[in-house]
Amino acid sequence: MLTGTNLVYTKQYNLRIVLEVIRLFGPLSRADVARHTELTGQTISNLVRELLAHGLVHEVAKRSEGRGAPSTSLAINPNGSFALGLDLDRDHLTGVIVDLAGVVRQRIHVELDFPTPTDALELMTRTVDSLIERQDVDRSRISGLGVGVPGPMHMASGSTSYLVNPKSFPGWHDIPLAAWLQERLQMPVFLENNATAAAVGERWYGAGQQLGTFFYIYFGSGLGGGLIMEGRPYEGFTGNAGEIGYMPTGLAGDAPNDEAPHVGLHFNMSRLYAELRQDGAEAQTLEDLDGLLRSNHPRLLRWMDAAAHHLTGLVLAVEYIIDPEAIFFGGRLHNTVLEGLMERVAQQLPLRRIVGKTSSPRLLLARAGVDAAALGVATLPTYEFLAPAPQVLLKQRNRAIAGLRMMSSTGG
């Protein structure tokens, strides 16, 4: 149950609690909201009045509850707030604008090839402007911009601000992408590991809404992971919790000279495409992989079997160390490929799990699809300003600049 509080900083926290209850369980009457939150009817009335004034919720219908006048139902107002998400990787940029209900209103996708910092900044700025123009929304209704980049996160020397990892993007050493975008766009900007962002998106809008602790295996241009603990993202000391792709392995003997053998090498999409083309298969996109799997191409099937072997070891490590309720498979790979990997992992797990273990996490397919990271980072501004998490309310985050105008009068 999401319950309110009567502590000193109650107003902002209780506003978020009420909004979250309506988002998860609405439409609800005011009495229903009071029962969910254990707040008094008068407190609910005051908080709902404020949320209505900000346009974050609206009254959608009236329903009879027995005797007396019918009660008004409350629901999230999709147009109450918008957020932007940009998923930047070595091979693409995907941009989305989502409403408060998590619906993608506009989407832009561009194929790339290791963009330079200047090229990426210009493209990202144009993409944001285009998304806003297409949606025809006032910028005052936009809570901010989330930007997802491949991990591991890189921390600037002498600072607590995160930078794009130069290992993932050669030529990007000490590039303050979030600060650049903040200056150009004049809105709050959040930089996040795309795997963690995808996990946040699954928690906010997907099958993770009712789960407290889960792990998200993210398939992008490589392999990553995001961790949700007790309903909130866990980033670790350096922001790199969940980086399963860098787990060492003795099976990747063809690692580049400057890299230790690690699991993620097997999931490097550029390497996979090249290997498939050497076998005479047309392979340049995710759609090509989907087609090759449907036709049971032998080289791709061998890759799937080897991938499942690696993933089974990672799943077991996550299972024993974190003890999550579920482990999601998601990211940019198509569902047919993800489902094939999940089936193979599920077959191997009983053979490699210790005898006598009585419980195990569920393996679940993530719901966000190939735009998981873009949708995930688009939730970050909303999560920062609206989520009922005490540590979000109390701490200062260097990745966020400024606040949500609509909430400025609520005591935050």
How would you describe the overall organization of this protein?
It is a single chain. By secondary structure, this protein is an alpha/beta fold. It folds into 3 domains: 10-76, Winged helix-like DNA-binding domain superfamily/Winged helix DNA-binding domain (Arc Repressor Mutant, subunit A, Orthogonal Bundle), CATH 1.10.10.10; 80-198 and 388-407, ATPase, nucleotide binding domain (Nucleotidyltransferase, domain 5, 2-Layer Sandwich); 207-366, Nucleotidyltransferase, domain 5. It has 12 helices and 15 strands. The chain has helices at 10-25, 30-37, 41-54, 117-135, 177-185, 194-205, 269-278, 286-294, 298-322, 335-352, 372-386, 390-394; strands spanning 28-29, 57-63, 71-76, 82-89, 92-99, 104-111, 142-149, 154-155, 162-163, 189-193, 214-219, 223-229, 232-233, 326-331, 362-365. The strands form 4 sheets. Strands 6-5-4-7-10 form a 5-stranded mixed beta sheet, with helices on both faces. A hairpin with a 6-residue loop joins strand 8 (154-155) and strand 9. The radius of gyration is 22 Å and the shape is globular. The two termini are 24 Å apart. The relative contact order is 0.14. Mean pLDDT is 82; it is low at 390-412.
Unreliable stretches? 390-412
Q: Please state the second-level CATH architecture of the largest domain.
A: 2-Layer Sandwich
Beta-strand fraction estimate: 15-25%
What's the alpha carbon Rg, rounded to whole Å?
22 Å
- Looking at CATH, the homologous superfamily of the largest domain is ATPase, nucleotide binding domain
